[in-house]
Known about the structure:
Elements: E1 11-18, H1 26-44, E2 52-59, H2 64-76, E3 81-83, H3 88-101, E4 105-106, E5 123-124, H4 130-143, E6 148-154, H5 157-173, E7 176-183, H6 189-202, E8 206-209, H7 213-225, E9 231-234, H8 239-246, E10 254-257, H9 268-280, H10 288-307, H11 313-320, E11 324-326, E12 331-335, E13 338-341, E14 346-350, E15 356-357
Parallel strand pairs: 1-2, 1-3, 3-4, 4-5, 6-7, 6-8, 8-9, 9-10
Antiparallel strand pairs: 10-14, 11-12, 12-13, 14-15
Helix pairs in contact: 1-10, 2-3, 4-5, 6-7, 7-8, 10-11
Amino acid sequence: MAADPGVSDTEIVIGNTLTLQGGKNAYGVAAHTGMKLYFDALNASGGVGGRRIVMRTLDDNNSAATAEANARKLVEEGAFLLFGPVEGGPSTAVMKAASDMKVPLFGPMAGPPGLRRPLQKMVFPVRAEHREEFRALMTWGKSTGLKSVAFFHADSDGGRKHLENVNIIAKDLGMQVVLSLPVKSEPTQADFEAMTKSLATANPDMVLNHGSPGPYQKLIEKARAAGIKTSFMGVNSGSSQMVKNLGPLAQGMVFAQVVPSPWERKREIAREYQDAMRKVNPNPEFSYGGLEGYMTAKALAIALKGVGRDLTRANFVRTVENSVMELGGLRVRYTPAEHEGSHFVDLSLVSRDGRFIH
């Protein structure tokens, strides 16, 4: 059988469009560093069955339109598959291109439900979706006596789907969603003042977010300045960036994380990532994004090895749909009916000195 584009006797070309924003997107930069770290080590040890992984990367600048154009360009220029976008809007746009062009998209690092339901035949997320993070945060909140919830989310179809999930989870847990806080892509000062007033009026026990770390950080600052005492919690997206920027205001916040602690050595995948980082840098900067990029690259390598030498897109999809991958203490599983991958969610608490304690 003839190989599909991007596959030769010596190389497998993968197309990677992700949100770097010229180096300003901390999570995207860290994720890309983690991917490259894994692929460089893999290539140095012989690649996948003697084939090097060649990752071609384009920056989508957190624009859905750019992400879709990048994805189509990468495939047209010979990528075998698409890999590793971050952020919800761009990842959903890459999914559209992948579905249209019948090219696999492996490892989108984003939590929108649309990447997983309804089933997308060509799309294979590795990380858990935001719904799993919402449930973990709300379950923890309930266990500490919190009963009412406010939800900060993008003013978009995706954000409204997340709100639906939060409402379903609240009903399951016997909690009440008392306030929805939709945020525009470029919120104004007046928008933040209005949201702060709504928070003061509704007085929820806890607030959680769907992404948008920059605006969410600003809301937390405004709310604390107004004396609002509610418990702010967050999903993994931009958590490190938020904690750094919030400083003392982040103390005590609880965040959901879709990978283990990159600083602790409790799980094999974290130890493997740390050791790989130390080989290339004596003073490494570990991060959630770096570990997620590394872990997602490792899952792709396992998938490609599982297909063997007869590497076609159809064989790749068929193989992944019937696979269980061990990533060093984390299990990723796909079936023809479910492409979610991992359901792993951990909770982290921000300490007085700004560290994440799992």
